[in-house]
Amino acid sequence: CRFGPRCRFLHDVSQYLAAKPADLGGRCVLFDTFGRCPYGVTCRFGHAHLGDGHQNVVNAALARQWEGKVLVRNGLSKELQQQLRKRKFRFGRAEEFLRGIRAEGVPKSEILENSQGAPKPEILENSQRAGGAPSIPTLGPLTDEDVTKLRPCEKKKLEIQGKLYLAPLTTCGNLPFRRICKGFGADVTCGEMAVCTNLLQGQSSEWALLKRHHTEDIFGVQLEGAFPDTMTKCAELLNRTIEVDFVDINVGCPIDLVYKKGGGCALMTRSNKFEQIVRGMNSVLDVPLTVKIRTGVQEKVNLAHKIIPRIREWGASLVTV
């Protein structure tokens, strides 16, 4: 040990094993499954894979079967985390949609264009006189992304009729719990509610809610947010960086921390923002967008039957109540 006599840790393996509590069982599930246990002598089932001289035994044939396989996907890389924290991640499609929202406040007479596609000269003069660059939206150049952009009918579709859907469960529906439910027959799984602003800031604890086990063949994530800019950007971020089969919007959470900020079930009473969020996220996603709502926000005042047809018009593929 490079610390010599100053080191506080135990270096004698035999002495460590003598003081270690008795094993919990005779078989190690990690060794039986993957051919090696990464915990070695510290494993509470260590006698199943400790050989002569307390060396960690490896089942080479079984370990070879798992080489190169990623068991848990959707992790947050250091490179992506730095891009998010330094605000260097580019949200091209989201910004395009948000510019359209901002332009909705401009009178129609001001966004009329001539046959060449350029704004009218008097509009440019007025905007330049006001100071700064013109804020009039234009068509701009035609790019490959415009040509190859998926139409709604071309988006990936999920056939989940008759399948068992494990609802997203905050503080409970983590990856180990979903693995257990998957073993008991769940077909469709969804991650815990993740706050979009925390994801955009690159918080590791929030990104852990997006992790997907390789046994989850139909998997989605659930996002919570109150504003179209953060929700649309977060949807584009996930669409480009992780593997999911659908994205769900939480419009059902009733806790004060979420409700008072305008998120969760508060969105049911903020129909304009709700519509912008659904349309924006749907425009940047290549997978289906789903929405989870409540019957209403106040007791004995139901809104679901009025808002569900509108959610369908906005572009959502599925609504759960």
Could you please say which CATH topology of the largest domain applies here?
A: TIM Barrel
- First and last CA, distance: 60 Å
Taken from the alpha-carbon principal axes, the silhouette is: elongated
Structural class of the secondary elements?
alpha/beta
Which architecture of the largest domain per CATH?
Alpha-Beta Barrel
Oligomer: single chain
On the 0 to 100 scale, the average pLDDT is 86
Give, in order, the helices and strands: HHHEHHHHHEHHEEHEHHEEEHE
As a percent range, the share of strand residues is 5-15%
Number of helices in the DSSP assignment:
14
**Measured on Cα atoms, how large is the radius of gyration?**
26 Å
Low-confidence stretches: 107-136
Task: Name its key features.
321 residues; alpha/beta; TIM Barrel; 2 domains; two-stranded antiparallel sheet; 14 helices; 36% helix; elongated; zinc ion binding; FMN; oxidoreductase; tRNA processing; tRNA-dihydrouridine(47) synthase [NAD(P)(+)]
How would you describe this structure to a colleague?
This protein has 321 residues and is of the alpha/beta class. The chain folds into 2 domains: 59 residues, no CATH class; 180 residues, Aldolase class I (TIM Barrel, Alpha-Beta Barrel). The chain has 14 helices and 9 strands. Strands 2-4-5-6-9 form a 5-stranded parallel β-sheet. A hairpin with a 2-residue loop joins strand 7 and strand 8. The protein is elongated. About 9% of the residues have low confidence.
